Automatic annotation (TrEMBL):
Its EC number is 7.1.1.-. It comes from Pityrogramma trifoliata. The chain crosses the membrane at residues 12-35, 47-68, 88-106, 113-132, 170-190, 279-300, 307-326, 332-354, 375-392, 412-432. Belongs to the complex I subunit 2 family. NDH shuttles electrons from NAD(P)H:plastoquinone, via FMN and iron-sulfur (Fe-S) centers, to quinones in the photosynthetic chain and possibly in a chloroplast respiratory chain. The immediate electron acceptor for the enzyme in this species is believed to be plastoquinone. Couples the redox reaction to proton translocation, and thus conserves the redox energy in a proton gradient. The keyword Transmembrane helix applies. It is a multi-pass membrane protein. It is found in: Membrane; Plastid, Chloroplast thylakoid membrane. One of its GO terms (biological process) is ATP synthesis coupled electron transport. The gene is ndhB. The lineage of its organism: Eukaryota, Viridiplantae, Streptophyta, Embryophyta, Tracheophyta. The keyword Protease does not apply. Keywords: Chloroplast, Membrane, NAD, NADP, Plastid, Plastoquinone, Quinone, Thylakoid, Translocase, Transmembrane, Transmembrane helix, Transport. This is NAD(P)H-quinone oxidoreductase subunit 2, chloroplastic.
């Protein structure tokens, strides 16, 4: 009986290692790369690589959920309920994103291994960023996430728009990283060479280096605003969204809303507590202008991907309201709850756009006219989800925004919450415009059935499989709807989360 007890005890101890989910994903990343290198038959390996990714994601998620119930074996571990929630969100995001992109990659005859590798790398970087507690780890993980995203945006190498999007992303990411690094280096020098966040703030003398500390805070705010696509540092977002492959756009739209706010909250909450009024005012203004600009410009867009790029700018403004609330009981809980609902809503929206783009080769909004007569399943998804994104009751988006705005108001975000309410009403217009076109519009370009027109990247000899995307679409519709019905248990889970 002794060997059995020892083995079980060893397994139990191993599971409690705080970074075990990241270790599992790293091993799966290595396995995918090695298998792809050793076997040249990529079509044969597609199912194997896909299974490796799904299994590793499932195991990592299970381990992470188990660690919530038991403390980690390392006392100096910096994981907490706050960081574990965002790590869980990133795992869910990676799992759903790959389900969306698998058919797209196969139909466009691109290699699946590279896509899975970049997805895993970005997911790993985001998870590390969520619990990073020193300046070097924060910077390296943020750059790793940015580079993986850059490679994904240029994934369709034969498409000149994808190449352009990748170059713009790389240049803007480099500019924002330089500002962020300048702010970190200033903190490193002012604190006497400290890297840990708590040691950094303890080593800074506010009265002695006031101007330098303000300059450092401004640099970090600007660099982070680039990553978050906050106004006026959002200029790269619409162009990158429009040029990137649609599954990659789905990846962009969610990842930055999960990893960056988690890091931003920890960074400013720990390092600049004595400048809380100043950075709250600055970030509040950025969030308000992001909500205004994102929703107003989205009304004028003709491309679906550009139209979704501007709401993503406004959505990060909504999430910032929860960050500014800075209340571990309800403020952070409202931000986390809305982020979870947004993941389901937004990925579900792209589950509709991806098959439509594959079958028609277009992302123009007017080409959605009359879609109800051609493909009722594609129409079913936006009818339930678009009102949720706009905040129309009773879907989950309404309850998420109501909870977020209410606690933002109670926390004193008086300018931001009225702006959020007004701009949410504006967003209803362009979401319902697409639904109206689907049912009442007439497409003047062609009466050809939707399945006959092919994207230039798709081989006509390949029949596009609808089953996985449509199943994924239905799952996301149900999840984003039911999350509104069961929002109270979700809120209870997210309460009392602090970093």
């Amino acid at each position: 009986m002794t060997p059995s007890f020892t083995t079980n005890d060893l397994i139990f101890t191993l599971i409690r290692v705080s970074i075990l989910p990241e270790i599992i994903l790293t091993l799966s990343l290595i396995a995918i790369i090695v298998i792809d290198l050793l076997d040249s038959d990529r079509e044969k390996n597609t199912i194997l690589l896909y299974k490796i990714f799904i299994i590793s994601m499932s195991i990592s998620t299970g381990v992470l959920l188990f660690q919530w119930q038991f403390p980690n074996i390392f006392e100096n571990s910096h994981t907490s309920s706050f960081t574990n929630i965002f790590r869980f969100f990133l795992l869910i995001r990676s799992f759903l994103s790959v389900l969306l992109s698998a058919d797209y990659i196969l139909c466009s005859k691109m290699a699946l291994a590279e896509s899975l590798s970049f997805e895993l790398s970005a997911g790993l970087a985001g998870m590390v960023l969520s619990f990073a507690n020193d300046l070097i780890t924060i910077y390296v993980s943020l750059e790793f996430l940015a580079l993986s995203s850059c490679f994904l945006s240029g994934y369709t190498k034969l498409d000149i728009r994808s190449n352009e999007a990748s170059m713009k992303f790389l240049l803007m990411s480099g500019a924002s990283s330089s500002l962020l690094l300048y702010g970190f280096s200033s903190l490193y020098g002012l604190s006497g060479g400290q890297l840990q966040l708590d040691a950094t703030v303890a080593g800074i003398t506010l009265n002695k280096y006031v101007s330098t500390i303000y300059l450092s805070a401004a640099s970090i705010t600007t660099g982070t605003a680039f990553k978050l696509s906050l106004f006026p540092f959002h200029q790269w977002t619409p162009d990158v969204y429009e040029g990137s492959p649609t599954p990659v756009v789905a990846f962009f739209s969610v990842t930055s809303k999960v990893a960056a706010p988690a890091s931003f909250t920890r960074l400013f909450g720990l390092i600049f507590p004595y400048l809380s009024n100043e950075w709250h005012i600055a970030v509040g203004l950025l969030a308000a202008f992001s909500m205004i600009l994102g929703n107003l410009i989205a009304v004028t867009q003709r491309s679906v991907k550009r139209m979704l790029a501007y709401p993503s700018i406004s959505q990060i403004g909504y999430i910032m309201i929860g960050v500014l609330a800075a209340d571990s009981e309800n403020g952070y809980a409202s931000m986390i709850t809305y982020t979870f609902i947004y993941i389901l809503m937004n990925l579900g929206t792209f589950a509709r756009i991806i098959p439509f783009g594959l079958r028609t080769g277009t992302d123009n909004i007017r080409d959605y006219a009359g879609l109800y007569m051609k493909d009722p399943v594609l129409t079913f998804s936006p009818v339930l989800r678009s009102p949720s994104l706009g905040g129309i009751p009773p879907p989950s988006g309404f309850f998420g925004k109501l909870y977020l705005f209410w606690h933002g108001w109670k926390a004193g975000s008086y300018p931001s919450v009225p702006v959020a309410l007004v701009t949410s009403v504006i967003s209803i217009y362009y979401y319902l415009k697409i639904i109206r076109l689907m049912f009442t519009g007439k497409n003047g370009r062609s009466d050809t059935p939707i399945t006959s027109r092919q994207n230039s990247l798709v081989s006509p000899s390949i029949s596009i499989s609808k089953s996985s995307l449509e199943i994924a679409m239905i799952i996301r519709v149900l999840a984003s709807t039911l999350s509104g019905i069961f929002i109270d248990p979700i809120i209870e889970i997210t309460r009392n989360t602090f970093f």
